Sequence to fold (393 residues):
Amino acid sequence: MIRVGRCRKVLFPRLDVPVYLNHAAVSPLPAPTSIRLQHLLEEHARDGLSGVFKWSEELPVARQNLATLLRVQADDVCFVPNTSAGLTHVAQSFPWNEGDRILLFEDEFPANVVPWKMAARRFGLTVHWSSFAGVVEHGLGALEDILHTLREVRPRLVAVSAVQFQTGLRIPLEALAEACRQVGAVLVVDAIQGLGALPLYPEDLGIDIVVAGGHKWLMGPTGSGVLWMRRALWDQMDTPHASWLSQEDPFGFLEGDEPSLDQSRPVRRGPVSVEAGMINYLGHLGLGVSAGILHSTTPEAISAHAGLYLDQLEQALVARGFTSLRRSESSLRSTILAVLPPEGTSVSTWAEWFRGHGISISTPDGRLRFAPHLANALSEVSLISELLENGPD
Fold:
């Protein structure tokens, strides 16, 4: 069992950074994942084709580990290279009608904007915009403005992140999903900034589609990710990315004594159509290992630990003159804390100072972002507080 807040030596024994608060960017690779990947590479080097065939036998376990985190059926889960690829697949496969409306948000990371804009151009769709800026500033009361826009626009699809990358705002997905259901809209959630650290159970929340890259809170290798959608939607998708592994009995012609290549084999629908060719076995199997590590605790325990860590860190930063962008409502808080620097100082100056003191952070869109995970000890906050007394200003 992983002890949240006390597992750095177990998970990240080779991590050189004293205080790693950059899980919202890229997670270090956990030791069990790194070791398993090394073994897989050795099998490939030693056994060639037979080594790769062994990998395919392990893939269902990795798929189930991800399904368990989402509390969904593994048959509705597929692997994707990253968030962008997963969202692009949905955007290009969705059963659009010309004139359909899409609701997007100005605060989104571009990965959850560009695929929809490209689909709009290709299929003759109309893009409408809203923003969570009011919720960041005023709290849940401002959510009604967004819901009003949704009811007024009546979109075919709404695309949103589970957590905003700049501010750490946790989107009230259940309320958004209910509003989508009322107008008949499909809700697509980019979960890369939450899955692995927050309880994100799409069927409980009423979400229709979830996409998440694996290299952040899931602690997986880069080039790995997960896509889930409701079975009824899988059956409606018409993928432009199908290839030979999308067919019925794709391996049949590679075995046996007689030629059996048949170009008339039908293409299957569902998750299998996405994994269309030789996939990134190493990345996806590594992601499965990391997802299995997360089963040693719960998203609820991780988010509670990160929340306590950020409560203390926020207090120290505000006392030093920083402005917190974190909401007071617990339902709007994630495992990310974003702040603005003290008046008269710059983001870049403080970022350089933090990094120079062994504290790894990011600076997305003009904010300083702190993102602890299950291995960050609360004692790190005391170290940061002491260092702040002699900051660059």
About this structure: The mean pLDDT is 95. The CA atoms of residues 25 and 302 lie 17 Å apart.
